[in-house]
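hey
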């Protein structure tokens, strides 16, 4: 089975498990609510002034709140616990953390004289942005992870390279000469290899160079429900991206200087999950 098929299967299994848990918890509560309402309606004496309905509402209100508010409370508790856990992971970087979308988290700040932004979102996915003095586009991914959309983005074939450290890695570049210089640099190749082939639970990993920044995008894991990230991994990803930013700034500048597109600008600000 391909990695894309495996990711689809794991996502389906995850969604099924969530639906089963919701049914196991919600159906008994709903049944309890219905049975209780019926019993109260038949046991309370009938009257003409609405007292029976008032008592029925008073008795049923707590159960109704539990049934309707319980799932929201559970999501809130889980989200807050994960937020505290993630805040501890990113605390050594000195970044400011805040909520992102409904259940995600984002971190922003200056680290070693560079802007560092991190977005964690449902998927699960993690996206790192590190500022860099660069004005071109390049993307690198494992050969089996290359999506058709990535190839369409560059409207051309991938680079041909003979760099041993980049074996099994596909590179697309807006400017071939700059891309070849990127791939031919052994230090850059080692950083890219470690970012894409490093040990972690994420199924898909991509490294992007965009005007003004280098990005690392990680998404979909082989875990059923949990997001598995360690403080050591956060530190390693950050150090590797900082190193990559320093290395590409030493390359000869591209012949054509590019600027961010509106879509890239929105992604940079975190309003899109597309890198």
């Amino acid at each position: 089975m391909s990695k894309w098929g495996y990711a689809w299967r794991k996502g389906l299994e995850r969604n099924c498990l969530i639906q089963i848990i919701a049914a196991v918890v919600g159906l008994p509560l709903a049944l309890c609510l219905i049975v209780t309402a019926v019993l109260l309606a038949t046991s309370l004496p009938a009257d003409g002034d609405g007292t029976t309905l008032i008592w029925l509402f008073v008795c049923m209100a707590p159960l109704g709140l539990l049934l309707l508010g319980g799932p929201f409370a559970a999501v809130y508790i889980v989200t807050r616990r994960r937020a505290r856990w993630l805040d501890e992971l990113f605390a050594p970087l000195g970044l400011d953390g805040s909520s992102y979308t409904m259940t995600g988290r984002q971190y922003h700040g200056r680290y070693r004289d560079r802007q560092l932004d991190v977005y964690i979102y449902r998927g699960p996915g993690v996206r790192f942005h590190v500022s860099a003095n660069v004005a071109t586009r390049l993307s690198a991914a494992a050969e089996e992870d290359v999506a058709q959309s990535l190839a369409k983005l560059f409207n051309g074939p991938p680079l041909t390279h003979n760099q041993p450290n980049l074996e099994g890695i596909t590179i697309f570049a807006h400017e071939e000469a700059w891309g070849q210089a990127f791939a031919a640099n052994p230090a850059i190749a080692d950083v890219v290899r470690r970012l894409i082939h490093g040990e972690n639970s994420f199924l898909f990993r991509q490294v992007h160079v965009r005007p003004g920044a280098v990005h690392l995008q990680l998404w979909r894991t082989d875990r059923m429900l949990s997001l598995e990230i360690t403080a050591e991994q956060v530190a390693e990803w950050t150090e590797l991206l900082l190193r990559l930013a320093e290395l590409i700034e030493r390359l000869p500048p591209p012949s054509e200087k590019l600027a961010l597109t509106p879509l890239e600008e929105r992604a940079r600000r975190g309003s899109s999950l597309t890198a």
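The two ends are 26 Å apart (CA to CA). The beta strands are 96-100, 104-111, 114-121, 125-131, 138-142, 169-173, 202-210, 213-221.
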